[in-house]
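ok trying again, last paste got cut off:
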Amino acid sequence: MILTAGRTLDAHLLATHASAPAEAPAGGIAGWAADLMDSLGAAGAGAAIALENLFPPLPSEVILPLAGFAASQGKFSLLAALLWTTAGSVAGAIALYAIGALLGRDRTVAIAARLPLVKTSDIERTEAWFGRHGTKAVFFGRMVPIFRSMISIPAGIERMPLPVFLGLTTAGSLIWNSAFVLVGHALGTRWHEVTDVVGLYSKVVLALVALAVLAFVAVRIRKAGRGAHRARS
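nice, full thing came through this time. structure:
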């Protein structure tokens, strides 16, 4: 009788463990993305990534591994996660490309002319650089935090041929998305570990951008000071 009771208890514990919900995020951006995936499936992951493109503070390094984790729990297939997140990336990029195309070169130059320390020649140099390296910038830019969204705007301003833009964006997005979704799928309930690592990468990129902006401002202020000194002389 004791042996039978022990077996019954073990079976009950195993059943309880099997029915216990897997570790899932609660609250914050991860909780919001998880709710979208619960409601819409893989399409929810795609919608979250599309919004991430339009609002860069939404981190893809949280949403993508979470989509991989959801796929590992059987909420949708791994292939669906890859296809929908890439579709979301492309949809968001097209929206930003359209904004750039509507803005156009003339409006961009007019806006730049009103900004302190920015000259029309800066826009011209940027245009020349994009003309030489635009295809590489769009492709590799999809794998760099901050730039992965913003690179679509100059592509629209410069009217990069849409088929070229779509091909490069799709290829770059598929590589970036696949890496995070697959790692999240492999880590399972430890999906957030990849977020911690990539968060450091994002902070390094942000720091480099901040340093570049500060260097640009410092150089311009110094040149303006020299110009004023020469004018007085």
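cool. The radius of gyration is 24 Å. Confidence is low (pLDDT under 50) at residues 1-22.
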